[in-house]
Amino acid sequence: NSIDKDRLNAPCLNTDYICHYKGGLIGKHFKSLTQVMPFIIHDPIPPTVLDAWTVIGELVVLIWHTKIVDTEVYLVNFLNITSQCMPSILISKPKFHFLVHLPAFIHRFGPAIVFSTERYELFNHVFHLSCIYSNHQAPSRDSCKTFSWQDIMKHITTGRYWYDPTVKTWVRGGEMVLGYCDEHPEQGRLLGIPNSGCSMPISSQSNDSLCHSITITNLHIGSGKIETTPTAAGKTAQKDVVPWKTTRCAKILRTDRPGVTHHLGKSVVTCQGEHVCLEGHVIFRHPADGKVRLVFLTFIILVSSDDCQTAEHIALQLFTFADTLHPSLHLPCLTLTDNEVVVASIDLICIANLQHNCIDSQCADIYQKPLHQERTETSRTKAVMKHESTPKFFLNVYSIHNYEHILLIVPDTLHETP
After folding, report:
1. Which of 69, 81, 242, 374 would you label with 200, given CA atoms 20 to 30 Å apart?
2. Each residue of 245-273: pLDDT tens digit?
3. What is the DSSP letter of 357?
4. Closest to 402 measured CA to CA, from 66, 33, 80, 58
């Protein structure tokens, strides 16, 4: 309950469910646990067990790679991590023994997640849903008809053409049909229409502009949400504009713009199409040289008063890497500095998961947090760790989400695990 689950893209970290059904967990639960387990159990277990979990965390990230830039370097890292597993398990357990042959398969077929058979078994549920309104006399035919109608809808709503024998010409949908998925992104996701226009990692050697005009379904890169305040009627209203000279960005830039006002924002969309809120952690392109990418803490967002959907200025607080990995968790250590910088929204690449360094900060206090049933606070409570107010954090390299960008910002001296 005390770890930061945001920016992990791991929805299966329900503590109560995992503890109650500890004997019936499936793959998605274990995949989620491997990303945070070392931060949870670092205190009550012996170092050998903790080392095993750190190895598993690194191994899971490698297996879940969806794109391999350098196959040879990837296989060297994979074999290095695999060799740290217990040799007897690799020989006696069939599923672990598969790791011995996996490098050869990856070298021939590509990333392991691409040719995994388990992901195709999940499609059985999709076939079952396609036959709900069927008499089950010919389920294969009914499924094919359902999928064909869905493909026809996808063909029309994405602006494709078809031949109309009545007018004897090629036609396409009108403006309202083509704009339907923009107004209803949830329907677009059901049809399998991607909602992100930029998913390529940013190379450390690249100095090109990043996704300047890419539009995301119902979202635009750099768009922001304005801070709101509750009204007497029980609704919310946008907060009033503030003068530029009173903002944090003005103090950092040391500029004065008389007569200029802005809305304060509470979130912004990164180039990966992800919402990052205030006090969120992001990976960005440094405006000074365009090459340095570090993990920052979003401090404040300013949204233009002329266009209330565009974030013009974003103030960030910098992190610095320690010279060595942490001795017990073998993770990059970060320190939040007082250095601040103002960037444009286009410089934000993606979100990243950071965990508080409770080991070095000596976090030990526990407080009781009230539980909610739907939106109502109940009398029940749960114990939550109270983090000490220190600038020490861990970069979670066990996070599968945005792993390619996370690896790019880690210094080369911190890539080798002891």
Report:
1. 81
2. 888 888 898 888 888 888 888 888 888 88
3. -
4. 66
